[in-house]
Every structure is written in C-alpha cells, then in structure tokens.
Write a structure and sequence with these properties.
The strands form 3 sheets. Strands 4-10-9-8-7-5-6 form a 7-stranded mixed sheet, sandwiched between helices. Strands 1-2-3-12 form a 4-stranded mixed sheet. The radius of gyration is 22 Å and the shape is globular. Helix 2 (about 75-90) crosses helix 11 (about 300-315), helix 3 (about 105-120) packs parallel to helix 11 and helix 12 (about 315-335) runs parallel beside helix 14 (about 395-410). The protein is α/β, with parallel strands linked by helices and about 425 residues long. Strand 8, helix 9 and strand 9 (about 255-260) form a beta-alpha-beta unit. The protein starts with 15 loop residues before the first helix and ends in a 15-residue tail after the last helix. The chain contains 14 helices and 14 strands.
Length: about 425
C-alpha cells in the first residue's frame, strides 16, 4: 500500500489552528452566557430579545452600545425612503451581471454623487472586504501604482479583512508585517526597497487613528503608497463626513488609496473606493481585474437609493448637528469612565478587562439593560480583553449614565473628577 502524504501547514501568514483553537473557547463562552447569537426586535431604539433566548428569556429590553451606526442614519426616514424610491424607479432589486458587461445606471449615479462628496474618483463595492480583496493584489503586482512591485508592509493591527489578503499578495511580491504604526520600521523598508506599500486602518476598529501626517512625510520623501481602511471615521468625522484620512492627509493623489464602508456611520450598505490621480485606464483595470468588484455581486438598487439619500444628508447642516450630538455623547462617556481612548473624537471605547472576567462582566452589563460586546483573542491580543463600547448620536444622557454605572459595577475605572466639579 502506497503511503499517503500528510501536509504540514506553513503558517507564513495565518494560523487557523491558533485562531480557532483559542478564539473559539471565548466565542463558546460568550454564546453560553447569552452574549453572542442574540436575536432581538428593534422598537423605538430599544431592543427586545426574541423567543428562544436561553440565557435571559424572551422580551428582555436592552440598549445596544455595540452598533457602528454612529449617526443613526440607518434608520433615518430619508435614507429608508431613498431605498424604497430607487426600487420603484428602477423596478429591479438585483441586476445580476458583471458591471463590465451591462449595468443599469443606478450605481454610476451613486459613484458620481460620492465622487462629488469626496472630490475624487469613486468605485463602489458590495463590501469593504470585497474591495480590499480586489485591490491589494493589484497593488502587489504593481498594476495599481507606478508599475513597480512594492514590498507590502501590513500593519500588525490591520483589520482581518486586510490581513487575510496577505497570502494572495505574497504570490505577487514580498510581504512583511510591521509593529503597529511603527514609522521607523516603515522608513527603514523605504530606504531599502525601490517601492513600499503600507496597509493599515485609517481609523482602528478598537479605537484611534493612523498617524496620517507622519506617513505623508514618508510618502513625499520616498514615494510610499499608503492603503487605508477608514471605515470607522466616515461620516462621523470631518466636513461633509469625509473621514479622518481625507480631512488630514496632505497627500491626496495616487500615493493614497482609501476604502470606506457605507454601512457604519454612513448608514446604508456597500463600500466606496476613493481614488485620486488615477486615469480612466487604471480605473478600467480595477473594474475588470479586481475580482468581485466586477463580477456578479454588485450593490442592489435599494442600497444605491439609500446611499444617494445619505449622501444628500451629508451636504446639509443636519450632518454637523448629528456629529455634534455624537461628540457630546463621547465627551459625556469620557467624563464618567476612563479608557485609553479618553479625550479623542473616536466613537469607540475599549473598557479593559481580563480574559477571565470579560464574559462575566459583559453578562452583568447585559442583565442591567445594555449590550457591549466582549472582545478577546483573536480580535485583540491575548491578555488585552475588554468590553467594546460604541457611541452614537441618538443615545440619551440617561442611557449613557446608566451604562457607565453598570460598567463601574463590573470593574471599569471611573474618570478622574474635573477640578472644581466637587465644589472645592
């Protein structure tokens, strides 16, 4: 009998044995404690658990503090009506054919509207992860850029939607991982390689922003290409909601590529690739060879209509009003709970917990009427677990104060009192 070959993993760019072996225990514990797989109905901003919630029972009311719709635009009447109106106007939900073959004008209308909003070329995608999977291999091969295959430097904390593309990029060029926003590491690579591309979050899913200005200096000095996913700051940050990167980066040309999801603070669905300085020929390469950016999976008509409505809100004073409400709520939270993110404009706060206490803490907060998601390995590094709190414009002062009281009860660190507030 011929001996069969057993294949050993290489683990050059990922390690599912480690991810699943360690992470699944946390997920199972979350589910056993009623903190994962929750099904609930939304009524007036409050959620009620649906039948079948084993841990806490049917009808438990709670406020969701783990939602990325930072401006609550996903339930805005004009956004909802925009989706309905587009369906009526075009008479089809999905026109399922590659955009390079035949397309109805709906998505082109949205791309034009977003292009005017951002002041750049925009290509839409069904999701930011889809856009990333299509774009990064084209950067790796030099077809998106100056024609030179770059060294691909992935930030250690790059979102999984980017990190998962490492093996594909490695089939086109050399791939390395840098410490989190380590400018010295990046500059050292820029000195040694003819071309370098740095892949990172413009706004991190666990709080904080990329050092955009410092990276722009490396862009000017070495021609560094920076690929940002700025999904968490779109709409919530900047004039007309253009996000952190486009607000602060002085390098808005072919050396900066930004991807943003439209289903967080923008309040709709899909994603946008924001491109400066690229000609129509390069845009055609993206459309034709960017994987799922072209074939089958396009934005449906309802998502396009909702996106057009949200884009119009972004052109009005209402957006500023919503941003100000969000920032006031962030400030209120920071005045009550101390986190490493305190004092910033970013809408996410990570309340530190240990690996051993994070699930029980999340369960107690949920019992008190608030859902905050426990985060653990591989979402964060081992030993750095916490409760992720997401602030929104529509949250009330009463809800925020009650949440903070529940968090302090499970070990969150109260904020230091402001001098003078105690009357002394």
């Amino acid at each position: 009998m011929t001996e069969r070959i057993t294949i050993s993993p290489t683990h050059h760019y990922r390690n599912n044995d480690k991810l699943i072996g360690i992470g699944n225990a946390f997920w199972d514990m979350s589910e056993r404690n009623g903190l994962a797989g929750i099904v609930a109905d939304l009524d007036g901003g409050v959620l009620r658990t649906a039948p079948g919630h084993e841990f806490i029972g049917e009808g438990h009311e709670f406020v969701n503090f783990s939602c990325c719709s930072y401006l609550d635009l996903d339930s805005h009447p004009r956004v909802v009506e925009g989706g309905i109106e587009a369906l009526r106007r075009y008479g089809v939900l999905d026109h399922c054919i590659a955009r390079s073959r035949v397309q109805i004008p709906a998505m082109l209308e949205l791309e034009d509207s977003l292009g005017e909003l951002f002041g750049a070329h925009v290509v839409c995608s069904i999701a930011a992860s889809t856009a990333t999977f299509g774009l990064l291999p084209l950067i790796a091969s030099g077809h998106l850029g100056d024609g030179t295959r770059p060294l691909m430097v992935f930030d250690k904390n790059a979102h999984v939607s980017m990190a998962n593309v490492k093996p594909v990029c490695a089939d086109e060029t050399e791939v390395v991982t840098s410490p989190h926003h380590d400018l010295d590491f990046i500059e050292d690579k820029c000195r040694k390689y003819a071309r370098v591309a740095y892949v990172c979050d413009g706004s991190d899913s666990l709080g904080g922003y990329a050092p955009v200005n410092e990276l722009s200096e490396l862009q000017d000095k070495y021609g560094l290409l920076v690929y940002y996913d700025d999904s968490h700051s779109l709409s919530a940050y900047g004039e007309r909601g253009v996000g952190h990167v486009r607000t602060h980066s002085p390098v808005l040309d072919e050396r900066t590529i930004t991807v943003v999801t439209l289903n967080k603070a923008f309040g709709t669905s899909g994603a946008a690739i924001v491109l400066d300085g690229y000609d129509k020929e390069t845009l055609r390469v993206i459309e034709r060879f960017g994987g799922a950016l072209n074939y089958s999976q396009l934005l449906n008509t309802a998502a396009v209509g909702a996106g057009l409505a949200s884009a119009e809100i972004h052109r009005t004073a209402e957006l500023t009003t919503l941003q100000n409400r969000l920032h006031a709520n962030i400030g209120l939270f920071d005045s009550l709970i101390h986190t490493d993110q305190s004092g910033g404009t970013y809408p996410i706060r990570l309340v530190p917990m240990s690996d051993e206490t994070v699930i029980e803490a999340g369960r107690q907060v949920f019992e008190a009427g608030f859902y905050v998601s426990p985060v653990f390995f591989p979402i964060v590094a081992r030993g750095t677990a916490g409760l992720r709190v997401m602030m929104r414009a529509g949250q009330t002062e009463e809800q925020i104060r009650a949440l903070c009281a529940a968090l302090i009860a499970v070990g969150a660190r109260p904020a230091a009192p402001v001098p003078g507030e105690d009357g002394r």
